[in-house]
Amino acid sequence: MAKIDLEDLRLQNNHLQHIRKGVFYSLPNLKNLDLQMNRIESIESFESLANIQNINLQGNRLRTFNGNVLSSFHSSLSYLNLANNQLISIENDTFRNRNKLEIIWLNHNQIKQISANAFDGLSGAEKLYLDHNKINFIEEKAFFSMKSLTYLNLEYNQLAHLTRNMFEGLESLIELRLKSSEIIGIEANFLSCFKLLQILDLSDNRIYSIRKNMFQSGDSITELYLSNAMIDEIEKDSFANLQSLRLLDLSRNSINARQMNVLKLPGSIKKLNISWNNLSNEKGTKLNANFINQLGPSLEILDLSSTQFDLSDTQNFFSSLTNLRELYLNGNEIDKIENGSFPIENGLNYPSILTITLDTNHLETIPSNQIIAKFAPSLHSFSLAQNQIKKISSNAFFGLKKLQRLDLSTNRISIIESFAFNGLDRLQHLDLSGNVLRTLSDHVFDNLPNLSRLSLAKNWLQFIPTNFIRSETNRSFSSTTSVTTKIELDIAHNPLVRLIESSNLKLNFKTNSDIYDHIRIFELLILNAENGNLTLISAEDFRPFPSLIVLKLKQNLIRTILPASFLPLSKLSVLDLSVNKLESFSSDQLNGLNRLEHLNVSHNLLIESPSFVSEIQKLQSLDISYNRISRIESFGHLSDSLKHLYIRHNMISYIADNAFQNLTSLRMIDLRENFLTQISDNIFESIEVRLETILFSGNPFKCDCQLLSIYRWLEEHQRLVRKIQDDLIKAELICDQPERLKNVPITSLQPVDFCPIPIITLLKVIDLDSNSLRLMWDVQNETLVSGFTLEYYLTSERSLTSPAGLHVNSGTRSAELRDLMADKWYTLCVEAKGKSSRPQPSPLSSLSSVSIEKNLDPSRTKIMQLIENPPIVDYMISDPPDQKKLLLKDFVAGNHKCLQVRPLFFHLFESSPGSLDKRTQSLIPITSDYLN
To answer: What's phi and psi for 759, nearest 5 deg?
Structure first.
């Protein structure tokens, strides 16, 4: 077998079931073998892959994998992926002498036990994944030979107890993941076998109690995760010896303030998470300053969310946290913040604090800017979401000069005074969504030069606030100054009736677009006005926003778009009009959208596909799904820029052959769930070169002869069919008619399932002489016929001579044979040739023994001349069926008919009336059964 110089072989997502020994013998240089997502149940050996480095067997059906699979030649193997199989055990010799294996994936299997020496030979392994198995027992020294292992994942197993000897030998381990492993007990000093362990995750177990000797010998641990471990008791010295600890997560347990207060924590901790513990479950007991002060300047992140922490008289609690960067106080029922909440009275401040969140509390007013600004003058992110705040007063946040994000969402804010956000020169994101705003005061957003995103979603606004359109007496901007602040405005889920209030336009503006340039405060780039009550769109709505790039009007009640409505939006790239009430979408409504790239008008009431003007030259994506379109004739002047076309779930029953002819860059078409019963392959001729995906499942296809062309087209374009399967779409192309094929996948059919087998209904000689004859035939069910094969031979010499044969086209119904021997019986046969697969050139076409008379009428077909030494042809109709199937590769169950004839000496009939009748008496029709 010839050797092939191939390094990468990818066979993923197929139906492979067995890998035989030596199947890769011709690929000695193969380095990467990808067999994932097949149906492999057994592997004999990979022994011929001497240079293999990476084998991926993820997502198969392997139940065993032993040392015989990995031969002794696999010294170069570095990565082995056996995840998502059905392995139930690891045999001891599986990895023998695999000292170069670096990463092994055995996760998502059904392994129950790890025996001693299971991983012998893996002295060089660095990472081992055993998560998501059913492991309930690990023998001592199971990992003893894995001296180089740095990462071990045993999450989502059934370990129950951790012992000291379970991990013996893992002297280089840095990270150990034991989350969700049903652990209820930890042996004292179980960390003694680890010398370099830094990360230990024991979250989501049932540990209940933490004893002081559990984490002894854990000097190197830097991160300890004990979240949601059902802990309700901790001995005070449990963490005292963890002098390298940087992160401690005790969240979502049942630790009370009394136990927390006596805990001795190493001063090295930088991140402490004690959220979701009921610290106040004992009356009169609260978290005291001594607990947090032992961490002092080292603490950078503190999460006290949902602990019933009270911000009254807590200035001493935070006084020592001079390097604190993030403070989380969510969900604590805090109803006020006062001078005694933070240590500010002695002139102290904490410039390192960048984030404070007070979400989901009971605050009714904005905390005094004097308190927040003094405590955290460098604050970048401040969140007061999900409180009960009703009003924002002027200068409410003055002093927070470095604030970049402010979240005031989901409150009860109905009033925002002018200059409420004064002093927030660096503010970039402001979230006011989920409030009860109906109007906004003038100058609310003045002096926000860096604002880039503002959310007013889920309020009670009926129009876009005039703050984004005009400035009457603005102190910062004169009426002759153009403002360049670029912003994204989210005003979705408001009861908008128009984008711009008509009265404001008439009172304050002229129609000249230049005027708008002088009065505009913000330059809107993105406008989200989804889920409103808009019914009408006109050009007046967009004149103040000539810089819009993205416009989202999804899920309104829009019925009317006036001509040239989008004319002011010459920069618009994305337009979403989906889920509205549009019944038509004409080309004049798209005037001005020269830069449009993405258009979505799905989920409307369109009955015709949009027709595009020639200026739409950059459109890449068009979605007209979920409408009432019944025919696709043309998309007008839509250019070859279009790459994605979505026409799903319409009522389309007809697509013109030239519908897509200009869309030569098209990569994906979605025609699913329409009313197509037939579809021609001619539709895709002009676009098939670049087409990557075509989807048309869910159509009521009529699986008859007319569907054969698209059936064959799909066979020739398997890459498109493959894309259908890879698109996570389970629906197949199925037949709806006829009844016998209903719900049968089209790709599982054969051509004869679409059309009946052709049958030769007539075969006769219409002219007979002593050395020639003319043969005529007819056929029923001729759709599948690609041509005919004629054969004849001397009946008496059938076993000694091969027949002469001829292929003729499907329109031929007669043929003339000459130079026959008189008074000899000939067997003549005609067989219909099927179209089931691509025809292969026949050797008959080049046989020197076949002479063709070119001057004959085409309707009489060609003439074959039998010569003295008949040629050996590539088939015989009389061959046994199994042999014939192999030889006649371009035939599918075609029907054939034969007869026998004897040319007579002409002079016998020369003077006899009715001589033709006598001659035809020498014709004996016979069946294929007789011949075979």
So the answer is: -125, 125
In this structure, what is the dihedral angle of CA atoms 354, 359, 364, 365, given to the nearest 10 degrees?
Answer: 10
Domain presence at residue 696: no
Residues in the chain: 932
pLDDT per position as a tens digit, 226-284: 999 999 999 999 999 999 999 999 999 999 999 999 999 999 999 999 999 988 766 76
Q: Would 526 be classed as within a structural domain?
A: no
Q: Quick check: is 886 in a domain?
A: yes
Closest Cα to residue 76, out of 97, 58, 62, 57?
97
**Residues near 633 by Cβ (< 8 Å), separated by ≥ 6?**
609, 656, 659
Quick one: three-class SS letters along 29-82?
Answer: CCCEEECCCCCCCEECCCCCCCCCCEEECCCCCCCCCCCCCCCCCCCCCCEEEC
* pLDDT for residue 851: 29
Helix (H) or strand (E) holding 754: helix 751-754
Q: How far apart are CA 506 and CA 667, in angstroms?
A: 47
- What amino acid occupies position 351? P
458 or 190, higher pLDDT: 458
- For residue 726, pLDDT over 80 is answered with no
pLDDT tens-place string over residues 787-805: 888 888 888 765 444 566 7
Distance CA 329, CA 612 (A): 55
Q: Which two tokens stand for residue 367?
A: 């905390």
Q: What is the CATH number of the domain that holds 794?
A: 2.60.40.10
| 764, two tokens | 């006769």
Q: How many domains does the chain have?
A: 1
| Identity of the amino acid at 685 | E
Report helix, strand or coil for 786: strand
Please give the pLDDT value at position 286.
86
Tokens of 510: 């002229």
What pLDDT score was predicted for residue 902? 82
- Identify whether 826 is part of a domain: yes
Give the C-alpha separation, 483 to 475, whole Å.
13
Q: Residue 349 corresponds to which tokens in the numbers above?
A: 């401040």
Q: Which residues contact 911 (CB under 8 A, 6 or more apart)?
A: none
pTM attached to this predicted model: 0.79
Q: How many CB atoms lie within 10 A of CB 192?
A: 15
What domain range includes position 824? 756-931
- Residue 399, by phi and psi: left (phi above 0), alpha (psi -120 to 50) or beta? left
End-to-end distance of the chain based on CA atoms, in angstroms? 40
Tokens coding 84: 């998502």
Q: Which pairing describes strands 247-249 and 8-10: parallel, antiparallel, or unpaired?
A: unpaired
Residue 519 near residue 483, CB atoms below 8 Å: no
Question: Dihedral (C-alpha) 615, 619, 624, 630: value to the nearest 10 degrees?
Answer: 50
